[in-house]
Amino acid sequence: MKDTLSRIETLIESLASEDHSVCDNSCSELAAIGNDAVGPLIQALATDNDRIREMLSWILVEIGQPAVPSLISILGEGNVSQRISATEILGLIGNISAIGPLIISLKDENSDVRDGAAWALVRIGEPSIGPLIQSVNDKSSFVRHGAAWALAGIGDPAVEALINALSGATHAIQQILIDTLVEIKETSVQPLLDLLDNDDTEMRMLAADALGRIGSPLAIDHLISSLKDRDRIVRRKSVEALAKIGHPAFEQLFTILSDNDDEEIRDGITLVFGIAGRQVISMLVEKISTADADLRRRIVRTFGIIKAPASVPALLNALHDTDNSVRDLAAWALGEIEDRNAIEPLLALLGDPTMEARYSLAAWALGKLKAHDATGVITKFLKSPHPHVRWRAALTLGILRDRRAVGPLTAAIHDADPDVRKRIISSLGDIGDPAAVEPLTRLLTEDGADYWLLIKDTLTKIKSRRADSAKANYGDHYDT
Question: Once rounded to an integer, what is the mean pLDDT over residues 14-25?
């Protein structure tokens, strides 16, 4: 025995030789010695020499099962180099008795040991699945995430267990399980599609979210059906999922939008396009010219939601659409995008007296665009026979905050429509010009009983704006 031990030590020392044939012969002889060599080999793993450590690991893998108990012991007792090597060797040997100790090593203080343990569990494969599923509930975040990583690495064989574990798990654990299914990707798709029909709302929500993250076109039809789910959050997750799947879904969704009469589905698809943003713009710009009026309305509305400058040319064309609602929505969308290229066409529309009842939203859009050149044209709308046009003109002038509007607004302060009158008062406050104080005060004493509080608030706002302006000009020397 003493001679054997001495021989083992000599052979281990010879692994440092630069002669490859010496190293190869020593490795083969140590592997042949077997169990008696395990202890010295494991002790030698403490070396910092990577080349020697790789040879020692190979020898221990060749020895196999007899080395497993000692390797398991070193997981909790050895130095970092020994623990890292032990995880690697145990993974290559693949003995199931190492599963529990390796799971414990997922919480090792050293990240390389934790990574090695997770990798080893992946190598052991299917026998690790059950213990790893249980470990997803561990108190240690290292263990939870290491277990999830290992399950993702095992891949397809772990899918069924991951799906089954979702039921009854806490939300935090469900999220880890779902993240793991997403990492596995394609094999997870069908079980997740089946979950979209689950009675549990949480299951359906998680499934829709995961399918969107995986991005498989196989999920498109099922997610479209889920746009009618009885739960609002599931519907929203289905919308988001379709947007994430992206271009493979868009053409199909547009066809459904064109041919389907189900308003829930159509509204859901419109939201998908809104969330998808710029990646869907080119397709919608191309489609709008051949779409029917309802579809054009939806496309234009989507442009306003996305706020993409690339849609401005199409929206400028839509200002001349034969459908009133399309034109109004086009003006609204241009205001939302705030592209100043829209100012001139919108001004041209406002200059056409035959259009005033239909283009009040164009005035609002110009207000959003801070188009002060529009003030003169917009003030004319305060005399429109249509109350909604007068109301929106007053609103727009308040948005523009152009002092040139104060005269026309105060002249219209006795408007016959109460809502228009309130809007004029509020807009005078938004502009904040002291020239409005006298007309507002006079209104307060004449027939302001119905608007007393609004007028008082407006006068206070104008006074505050005047004080702020004075402070800006005179600094701390200004005394209110």
Answer: 92
